[in-house]
Amino acid sequence: MFETLKKATLDKIFVLMAEYAADPRDGKIDLGVGVYKDPGNNTPIMSAVKKAEQRILDTAKTKTYKGVVGNKEFSSAIVDLALGGVVDKSRIRTVNGAGGTGALMILLQVLGRARPGGRIFISEPTWPNHIPLAENAGLEVNYYPYFNTTTRGVDFDAMLKVLDDLTSDDIVLLHGCCHNPTGANLTNAQWDKVVESLKRTGAFPLVDLAYLGFGDGLEADAYGVRKVASSLPESLIAFSASKNFGLYRERAGVAIAIAKDSETADVVSSQMQNIIRGTISQTPDHGAEVVRVILEDKELRAEWEAELTEMRERMKRLRVKLADAIRQRSNSKDFDFIAEHSGMFSLLGLPEDVVTKLKLDDAIYMINDSRINVAGIPEDRVGELADKLLAAVR
Ligand SMILES: Cc1ncc(COP(=O)(O)O)c(C=O)c1O
């Protein structure tokens, strides 16, 4: 049977994680893996999550199936959190996904059914998993330029030029906030222009919202997704609770469909349910229930928001510290972009041989494309990191 198979390539991040784990050097620095790290270099269970889990443990009476759409109260709380009431609920339908990836999988499959072989435009660069997810749905992957490698900001004119040429058969995947891998994000005015372009061309938006609250705050980070959802007749949103609730392995996410009317929304819902039934049949519920408990309880919600704020501010502080340290040492503003980016990542724009050198000589790990996870910056060793980065690029 298996003789016909070739070895599939694994996402490079898993290889890097294994290399880091096997590296015996003291003081190694992990800027690679895309999970939040606290000052002790751990990815903690948030305190609001722990409390919600205890409550569930004490009160849950059954583990029977929830049904194909999953935990409706969780979905409803996420719709409120992400959209803040900007769209009439009669046009919204939701199903749970197994994490943000599961939500993306469902929504892309819906799009693949709606436009078999259709073109999807994805930012260049993007989170690498977008590509197989879209291809597995039978879509043709195309790119729009996104990152200016000189300024390390968004190459907005180039992006808009491509978007302006799309047709109503095309799909556009947008990162809702905290772009992965670049850390460069659209301003509100740029979101307005993107939405104007989509209105003009009729191209269809799919928003990937995996880091709500990691950039500038829950409300500020929702500007783009709310603009898209409220201005266009139809859109899709993939929400992940992995990062902002620290629920990574629990696989909590929501696929949100907004249709032009309630009847159409029912058709989309039936397709989403059909996809779930024919793939994983039911979605995981533990993480979904944890989020529901937190968002429906005033005190737990406040505690979660405070923890999220602390995480976000820590990442911002680390950005500023590293940018300052590099500026002081190099007397140049070349790395100031680190402080200007937002979210968990920054794309440093280093050549691959420099990234390899940093790994081999200094035990500093980052993704091959030079994406760093700013939460992995050791706060007490920022100066040393700046020295090593500068030595490697010289
Ligand atoms: C841009 C982006 N989208 C979606 C996801 C999906 O996350 P998960 O499936 O773990 O919820 C990630 C995770 O790294 C991501 O970076």
Task: Quickly describe the structure.
The chain is α/β, with parallel strands linked by helices.
Which helices and strands appear, and what pairs or packs with what?
Elements: H1 12-22, E1 29-30, H2 47-59, H3 72-83, E2 92-98, H4 99-114, E3 119-124, H5 130-136, E4 140-145, E5 147-148, E6 153-154, H6 156-164, E7 171-175, H7 188-201, E8 204-209, H8 218-221, H9 223-231, E9 235-240, E10 252-258, H10 262-277, H11 286-296, H12 298-330, H13 337-340, E11 345-347, H14 352-362, E12 364-365, E13 371-373, H15 382-393
Helix pairs in contact: 2-11, 2-12, 3-11, 4-5, 4-10, 6-7, 7-9, 11-12, 12-15, 14-15
Bound molecules: pyridoxal-5'-phosphate.
Pyridoxal-5'-phosphate (PLP) is lined by residues 34, 99-101, 127, 175, 180, 208, 210, 240, 242, 248, 253.
What does this structure look like?
The longest helix has about 35 residues, at about 300-330. The chain is α/β, with parallel strands linked by helices and about 400 residues long. Helix content is about 45%, strand content about 15%. The model has no long low-confidence stretch (mean pLDDT about 95). Strand 7, helix 7 (about 190-200) and strand 8 (about 205-210) form a beta-alpha-beta unit. A 7-stranded mixed beta sheet has the order 2-10-9-8-7-3-4, sandwiched between helices. A two-stranded parallel sheet has the order 1-12. It folds into 2 domains: about 1-45 and about 300-394, Aspartate Aminotransferase, domain 1, CATH 3.90.1150.10; about 65-295, 3-Layer(aba) Sandwich (Aspartate Aminotransferase, domain 2). The chain binds pyridoxal-5'-phosphate (PLP).
